[in-house]
């Protein structure tokens, strides 16, 4: 209920700073509904991505911390998906948000998987960012085959500021006999 505790250690692995982080954007009293989508060093800052599900709507937040003091530099809402149909589906593959970072640069992508979107071409939303957190590109994933009723996000790879590669699985029926794996790319 107190929020997030940040502990910063120096190069000798000695505790140098401790901070309690609260927020105006997400509710610290509902931490059990918060999932960590990623923790990365980006542009010499510790950047924490969390997903809070409030009213069955998953929302992605980006929290940036000073790498020396642990002080919060900035926090902001990145985006959300539509409302989940059942509380018990949270954390499953229904409405989920993923963050993938390029290990060779500070670029990253946020992928919003929305299995309840009525338009099949809006089930996966991709946002590509550079190391200064500037949005490079944004697109909805275009389903390669319109006959595929079932779509699942598998993973993504960020290629610096150039593009994001997305891997998906699609099938026309739940038995998956006609299923295919697709690799797609989003250029900046």
Q: What does this protein structure show overall?
A:
The protein is mainly β and 188 residues long. The chain has no helices and 13 strands. The model is unreliable at 87-93 (pLDDT under 50). Strands 3-4-5-6 form a four-stranded antiparallel sheet, with no helix packed on it. Strands 7-8-9-10 form a four-stranded antiparallel sheet, with no helix packed on it. It has strands spanning 4-9, 15-21, 34-42, 45-54, 57-66, 72-80, 95-101, 108-114, 124-129, 135-140, 150-159, 163-171, 180-187.
Helix-strand blueprint:
Blueprint: E1 4-9, E2 15-21, E3 34-42, E4 45-54, E5 57-66, E6 72-80, E7 95-101, E8 108-114, E9 124-129, E10 135-140, E11 150-159, E12 163-171, E13 180-187
Antiparallel strand pairs: 1-2, 3-4, 4-5, 5-6, 7-8, 8-9, 9-10, 11-12, 12-13
Describe what is shown at a glance:
This protein has 188 residues and is an all-beta fold. It has strands spanning 4-9, 15-21, 34-42, 45-54, 57-66, 72-80, 95-101, 108-114, 124-129, 135-140, 150-159, 163-171, 180-187.
Number of strands: 13
Q: Report the major sheet.
A: 4 strands, antiparallel
Helix fraction bin: under 10%
Q: Could you list the spans in which at least 5 consecutive residues all have pLDDT below 50? A: 87-93
Output the number of helix runs.
Answer: 0
Q: Radius of gyration over alpha carbons?
A: 18 Å
Query: Which strand-content bin applies to the residues?
Result: over 45%
